[in-house]
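Progress narrative, Year 2. Work on GAF domain-containing protein from Chryseobacterium carnipullorum advanced from sequence curation to structure prediction during this period.
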Amino acid sequence: MANLYKKDAPFQVLISFEKYLDVLEHIRYNDRLEYRANYAESLIDSTKNFQELKDGFQDVSLLEKHKDLIRLLLADLFPTGLTNNEIKAASIPLSNVTFNYTERFKNILKDAGKDFEIELRNIDDDEFYVFCCCLIVQTYFKRDIKSSMPLYYDIPNRLGIMKHYKITINSDFTDLYPTETAKIPSDDILDMLLENLDDFQLWKKYFPSQSWVLKGFAIISLVDCTSEVALSDLKSSMIEIDPEDLSPNENLVEIFKSYFDVPELNFGLMLFDKKDQKLGRLPIYENIFTHHVLDFWINAFDEETRKSTFTNLNHNSKPIVISNVNNLDESIKALPSFSILRDNNINSFMVIPIMKDNDLLAIMEFTSPQANSFNGLKLKKMEFFTDMILFSLNRFSFEKNYQIEAIIQREYTSIHDSVVWKFRNEAEKYFNASLGKKMYTLKQISFKNLTPLFGFSDIRSSSEKRFNLMLEDLNQQIETLQDLFTLINSDSEKYLLALDVFENELNNEIKADTEQRLQRLLREEIHPYLQGKLEMKTDKNIKTRIKNYFVQVFTQTDLFYANRKSLDDSITLVNRKLADMLDESQVKAQQIFPHYYERFKSDGVEHNLYIGHNIAPDLNYTSKEVHKLRYWQLKTMCNMEREFQNFKRDLPIQLDIASLIFVYNEKIDIRFRMDEKRFDVDGAYNSYYEIIKKRLDKAHVKDSSERITCPGKITIVYFGMENQREYLEYINKLQKKGILQNDVEFLKVEDLQGITGLLALRISLADES
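Result:
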């Protein structure tokens, strides 16, 4: 037997009217009303020459061939008086084979278009198969499993609005029985199957494909539930907010079209910022929502009027419904901003404030080019999902604030995850005290007896490069202006003389205020002069040259900035890449032992680590954790150096970095400074550590003019031979891995102010093969 289903199913199907003919036989011999018995007999007689109607068939073309006979046969089930009201047809259960439609059903399918094919909504192949098996369990095995999964058809009307119809199925005239290849599951197996409705393969094992026969036909009836389905879809759309991906639901406008039964509908939503008294768009819906009426509202009135309007909304939050824009007052239509409505072909709209506790949260708009699309009845339908809009906006606001707080925490503060527990404990004490109406003074957050680790990857000679590029920018600007004033050749001689003076200063005896004086000359005299030339009847070539000049000017400083921008962009790229690598590697470092970590970006990246028992008092802490972290630090900085060598050739300006690690054995204390919102070393004794860190950057090899740091090498600064032996072990490991070369240098660091006895190891990075 062939399968009449588009999807795989446990059934073989025979279209048959046998069970209905049996009903007619019963009427023929048992009905007391003679006219009914005669009517039943005539229907039975009309089918005698078409035995396939009783025996069953699979050739769907026979439905068309016998359509008049089938219509006559099923006349009692499809009353003529209800044909324009009921949406009804005969069908094979759960298939797209339908026939003998009522007139209303025919018209619905006709409006959908000749290419439309009726199909069940939102049911995948596996769900369909299991659902068919459940029908067998319910019908043949008489299990009351209440298989009531709602079934829907989605059918567009002639205006393109998607209408949703709920399907009810009458299967009185169908029969189910097993084939010879069918398996008859035991009660225990049926129980097991019903406990595993999602296990498609398990169901298919006990109900193999086409192992049962479905014979007969069903009656399907459709009920238009477009509003209910659209309302459910709206609620689902508004509930589904992914905090990791606040992405738009692009079907929202289509859902609104179905819900309001408006084929040409646009929707807009703006959030209200109570602090600034302004409406703001939702960026994620920028290309989906429209804001024509709200734009009109914003642009039609001055700021004071708008603010007073928002204030009034808090006291009188009634929606605005305009069925026909042409009926608006002539004074409104005369406003210049009314063109927004006219240009966007808006002839009907609703504007609805969303309020909570008398505070304005947002304003929605619905617009349509069709007059009379919106009215009071459409507005009434808003009541059914107003609460859901409030829920959605509140949740969006919560997620937005949560994400903003996360960004602030990540980008602007130093409250690292490893120490946040102590802040939380203190905050909880404060909160509990406030609940009991008690006073509580927040205590200082500090951690004592920590071992510090410090390192930096410094961009070498960045200040010198910036100075030279500044000279290039300013010389280029002066040269461009000189060419321009020579071309103008009238009333500009004084500017040429002034520019010559600055050019001489830049290239011979630059002064501390040279750049500032040039900047003042440009801002107060030269640029206003050139702007005036643009407004006058000036030669087109001169105007073009002036415009090209201003294109190169950085508006905030009035100076050329292209070369310095390339340097700044290069430094930004280096900092971001190195910082990202350090942050990513930090995840593994925290697994060694939780520790406080902070990093800073300037002309390079520097980092501080503090490790000790006080950071994680519940964990076992030994000196081994310090050694592991020191090895991690050295290995990570080697990887950062190697990665830099790979991408530095792609930088707009070629740069080099020099990396250093400072090893310090003494314990230090850190304290959170409330004024700066960051941790810092605590006490005068601990400040010695900070002084050393600051002076290492420019330190030299003892009795030499050579810096201790060098591009392409890692420098390790320390006190004492114990640290030297420790780091030589780490270096040996990395040499074996092909990360470092065999060229260790043993150096003495020059005496710094108040600091003597520092030693250093310096070693080159191996070339990547």
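The mean pLDDT is 84. Residues 11-16+56-224 form one domain.
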